[in-house]
Amino acid sequence: MGYFPFFMDMERLQGLIIGGGNIAAEKLEKLLLAGASLKVVAPEIKQEILVAAGVAEIKGTAEQQNADREPEGSECTEQEKPGRVEVIRREYRTEDLDEVDYVIAATGIREINDKVCREAKQRRIPVNVVDDPENCDFIFPSVVRRGRMVVGVSTGGAGPRVAVRLRKQIEEMLPGDIEEILDILARERIRAKKEIPDPVQRRKYLMDLADGLLAGLKHGK
């Protein structure tokens, strides 16, 4: 299986997470850092998911939570950040796949994950099945994020611990002012497009600027 590291604009895509446990919370938190819009569907939603999603915390015992729910067959939707996160407390339904761009199956139940995977693939929707790399159309890399800069490290599922160690090494070698440098380059790129009409001269100016800034970088966090 060959992977290619596409960098997608997550704000333009609608994601779906089936599952409400710890792994689902972990995936949700990572995607929210990229500005993703997501729907989370599960009969039981851990408080960590609601906190990560910015939704009001679930309070009370499990019995009290069940008593407060809508009658069986209905659904409870909580949404605090319009266009960002929608939490639906019920079992997965096939129609949950309507108008979504990618799916994460993280229920911890093999039969449900397989059903989500099968139905997503039938619709040609990319799917990630937790702990089942053979059925994944995409996987989550170990990520270094510094402002505009994003570095993803993956071993294709062969050695996640190796990816984590490499990520830490990359973090240690990055200069502390890389975010400031990238902000300068972004501003200058916009200005150069307006003030330097010749594409060759503009490219040379931006390359020289980047080289000069990189030459003066201070290493370390």
From TrEMBL:
The keyword Oxidoreductase is assigned to this record: yes
Annotated signal sequence range: none
Pfam family, one: Sirohm_synth_M
Protein EC: 1.3.1.76
GO BP annotations listed: siroheme biosynthetic process
Classification via InterPro entries: Met8-like, NAD(P)-bd_dom_sf, SirC_C, Sirohaem_synthase_central, Sirohaem_synthase_N
Keyword terms of this UniProt record: NAD, Oxidoreductase, Porphyrin biosynthesis
Catalytic activity, reaction form: precorrin-2 + NAD(+) = sirohydrochlorin + NADH + 2 H(+)
Region (Disordered): 62-82
The protein, known as: precorrin-2 dehydrogenase
GO molecular function annotation: ferrochelatase activity; precorrin-2 dehydrogenase activity
